[in-house]
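Progress narrative, Year 2. Work on Mitochondrial carrier protein from Brassica oleracea var. oleracea advanced from sequence curation to structure prediction during this period.
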Amino acid sequence: MHLSKIIREEGPTELYRGLAPSLVGVVPYTATNYFAYDSLRKAYRSFSRKEKIGNIETLLIGSLAGALSSTATFPLEVARKHMQVAAVSGRVVYKNMLDALVRILEHEGILGWYKGLGPSCLKLVPAAGISFMCYEACKKILVENINQED
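Result:
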């Protein structure tokens, strides 16, 4: 009922309003997260001279990758949230994501880009570690199954 009302009154494009700012935050986070994980994993292998990395090491490497990628992309998250708050209050404050980033920097300084990073990391860092640990476990199971079939 609500879906048809939105389409009828505001048009189908209204269903996707706000998608671009969300993607601008998610895509860089995901890319930096996997890049950081892969780089840290290779560095750990080189440093420890181990071919196989255990679950605890994977958890720690994944958590560190999550912390790095979260810190690197957090300004995008802050800008997105500022834009959402402005939209909910019914006023257009920012033209786009870049405008939001510049205006936050002007009004609050560089620390404005990182307000809330600590609580966010409390959520994201363990989640990233657990995700990469599960990723490696699933990859290992799939590779073993493929090798058994050959």
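Helices lie at 2-10, 19-48, 55-88, 97-108, 117-149. The mean pLDDT is 89.
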